[in-house]
From TrEMBL:
Belongs to the ATP-dependent AMP-binding enzyme family. This is Acetyl-coenzyme A synthetase. It comes from the Eukaryota. Residues 557-636 form the AMP-binding enzyme C-terminal domain. Its EC number is 6.2.1.1. Residues 109-496 form the AMP-dependent synthetase/ligase domain. GO terms for molecular function: acetate-CoA ligase activity; AMP binding; ATP binding; propionate-CoA ligase activity.
Length: 676
């Protein structure tokens, strides 16, 4: 049994609910009509007559814009008295102070009042055709039981619960149950290893972990509970582990473990929501930076929810009754904002995708689109590139006429993939929205839509800033570039409600990473190009963070593990262009004097270590043993040089004057040729 609380797998949306929903939302249909249709709360904003004037207004009158949106879109327990109190140069970011609300009430109760039988979640399980639908009423019931269960086991406002689960209704209910009782959640991607999980549990100081007995993906079972067992051994803070049963296979239970569904059945279906201040923590989400230690990015209640809701509605033109299909895992920010919080705050129907793009065959996404009648599909370029290689027939086999918007996220989408997505998947009918954002931004910041329906979209460009977002490009001297076309470091010139507030337990790191590089601006770590028309294209990270299959990982994190190998003296890890994954991992390794340089063994050994300590996706594709690494005279590894070697851009290797020993580069070039 997987769905507790008497949920049935088929739930019908009542015609009454449809009518209520429709009358409320149909006004959002088209852009080119009056302002009330554009955005009801914008009526009365001076000079606003269309989408681009609304964008301008939202930037130059940020407080009025966000105040109106917050009053209109969120249900408040107590109204806020201050819209924003921010100083980017100090890392002080506060929105909607004085206000109180509960995020789970905003995502559930208010929809249950109007349309309890509307489907909130469609759990697209691994086996095609075995989906399970959960209504708003059922999800509220699950959330309340779970909230009561957590409370009964001592979880209080301000605690942090770690969730290690694949996408499923109980994972969403766990997130919302935390929100209901005022605890923060810390969802850890269920592909992370026991050590990576332990590190995140320890940093978050969780007393409670929620998991499943086993995961099921692409027909394979993974022992998630066993991973949790191994992790909690090294986490003295953990007092209890709630275990949901995804499969019927029993797992060994320890003294700390509880069967989650059995315990939930003992709980009441009513759970008093905690009144939360706007700036109380909603969740931590660990992400990679340019140093070895992952950082717990902190998002708070009101601003995050408002931003997720508004971007979900406007970027994708989400309308009444649409089925929103975001295929990201809930362990990443995309899953948080666009599988869970954005759609649920908007009273939408959202898909939780448990499988892979090629299980049981490369038609999986499109068969799902047909079966679930998905209207907006949101996925990663790495999957699009993979599917493109299998050919058009896997797409054309299925009816995709329900699709209205196609979204891309997580990494740059190359023109070939963009065009295939547009022409083949969307039959040339659907706008492709290449959305740029980050864990730290909370929601989409640069995107082709919203804009007038006929406004131009250039393949491979993220295009325009969302409401309230003011991007700028910085030159190498730290000055804002005003002319077009231009390239530079992408910064955001003013705060917005969805932005991260701090790094858990390390505000100084937050300031140093995002606020200090360009004082007064939020530094994104990405480079961007702005065309003469003013459209943005993201060119990639400026730091040592790489993006493997849309998963963000710091090269320093991988080096940390590689350096722990007893044969390794030192290493340098870089990303290189990879056809499918976007970027692959390339490790340069210097062996200790007495080490045996069996390259094949070493690769195997390093792969084992990286998958054990981080996750499989972070494993090096290539390991090149070198005598020495190129370094500056002050001893810094010159990764720029290594990248050029691997990209075979030897002409770009012009300036080696700062190298301590330029001969090192020739050896590396030779070794690279032999390896590839
Ligand atoms: C990259 C994922 C190009 C970027 C939502 C960013 C992109 C990092 C795009 C954040 C895009 C995300 N085009 N690059 N449309 N979207 N990125 O935190 O380098 O996992 O800084 O958030 O992904 O990754 P994160």
């Amino acid at each position: 049994m997987w769905l507790p609380c008497g949920c049935t797998s088929k739930t019908i949306v009542t015609s009454y609910a449809r009518r209520v929903f429709k009358s409320y939302f149909c006004v959002f249909g088209r852009w080119k009509c009056n302002v009330a249709a554009l955005m009801p709360e914008a009526v009365g904003f001076e000079g606003v007559k269309d989408c681009s004037s609304l964008q301008e207004f939202s930037v130059s009158n940020s407080a009025s814009f966000w105040a109106a949106a917050a009053r209109h879109r969120l249900s408040w327990i107590k109204p806020f008295h201050m819209v924003q109190d921010c100083d980017l140069s100090l890392g002080r970011i506060k929105w909607f102070e004085g206000g109180q609300l509960n995020v789970s009430v905003n995502c559930l109760d208010r929809h249950v009042h109007t349309c309890p039988e509307r489907v909130a979640l469609i759990w697209e399980r691994d086996e095609p055709g075995s989906e399970i639908k959960v209504t708003y009423r059922q999800l509220l019931e699950m959330t309340c039981r779970l909230g009561n269960l957590l409370r009964r086991h001592g979880v209080k406002k301000g605690d942090c619960v770690t969730i290690y689960m694949p996408p499923c209704p109980l994972a969403v209910a766990s997130m919302l149950a935390c929100a209901r009782i005022g605890a923060a959640h810390n969802v850890v991607f269920a592909g992370f290893s026991a050590e990576a999980l332990a590190e995140r549990i320890r940093d978050a100081q969780s007393s409670t972990v929620i998991t499943v007995n086993q995961g099921v993906r692409a027909g394979k079972v993974t022992e998630l509970k066993r991973t949790v067992d191994a992790a909690v051994k090294d986490c003295p803070s953990v007092q209890q582990v709630l275990v949901a049963m995804r499969t019927e296979n029993p797992v060994t239970m320890t003294a700390k473990d509880m069967n989650m569904e059995e315990e939930m059945l003992k709980e009441d279906v009513v759970c008093e929501p905690e009144a939360m201040d706007s700036e109380d923590v909603l969740f931590l989400l660990y992400t990679s930076g340019s140093t070895g230690k992952p950082k717990g990015v902190v998002h708070t209640q009101a601003g995050y929810l408002l931003y997720a809701a508004l971007t979900h509605r406007y970027v994708f033109s989400y309308q009444d009754g649409d089925v929103f299909g975001c295929v990201a895992d809930i362990g990443w920010i995309t899953g948080h904002s666009y599988s869970v919080y954005g759609p649920l705050a908007n009273g939408g129907t959202t898909v939780l995708f448990e499988s892979t793009p090629i299980y049981p065959d490369p038609g999986r996404y499109w068969e799902m689109v047909q079966r679930l009648k998905i209207n907006q599909f949101y996925g990663a370029p790495t999957a699009i590139r993979l599917l493109l290689k299998y050919g058009d027939q896997w797409v054309q086999k299925y009816d995709r006429s329900t699709l209205k918007t196609l979204g891309s996220v997580g990494e740059p989408i190359n023109t070939e993939a963009w065009e295939w997505y547009h022409r083949v998947v969307g039959d040339g009918r659907c706008p492709v929205v290449d959305t740029w954002w980050q864990t730290e931004t909370g929601g989409i910041c640069i995107t082709p839509r919203p804009s007038d329906p006929d406004a131009e979209i250039v393949p491979g460009m993220a295009m325009r800033p969302f409401f309230g977002i003011k991007p700028v490009l910085m030159d190498t001297e730290g000055k804002v570039v005003t002319s077009n076309p231009a390239s530079g470091a992408l910064c955001l010139a003013q705060p917005w409600p969805g932005m991260a507030r701090t790094i858990h337990n390390n505000h100084q790191r937050f300031i140093e990473t995002y606020c200090q590089p360009h004082p007064g601006y939020f530094f994104t770590g990405d480079g961007a190009y702005r065309s003469k028309e003013g459209y943005y294209q993201i060119t990639g990270r400026l730091d040592d963070v790489i993006n493997v299959s849309g998963h963000r990982i710091g090269t320093a994190e991988i080096e940390d593990v590689v350096n722990q190998c007893s044969a390794v003296a030192e290493s340098a890890v870089i990303g290189y262009s990879h056809d499918i994954k976007g970027q692959g991992v390339y490790a340069f390794v210097v062996l200790k004097k007495d080490a045996d340089d069996q390259e094949a063994d070493l690769s195997q050994q390093l792969n084992n270590m990286v998958s054990k300590k981080i996750a499989k996706y972070a494993c090096p594709d290539f390991v090149q043993i070198v005598q020495r690494l190129p370094k500056t005279r002050s001893g810094k590894i010159m990764r720029r040089v290594l990248r050029k070697v691997v990209e075979r851009d030897l002409d770009g290797l012009d300036d080696l004057s700062t190298l301590d020993d330029p001969a090192a580069v020739q050896e590396i070039i030779q070794g690279h040729r032999e390896l590839c």
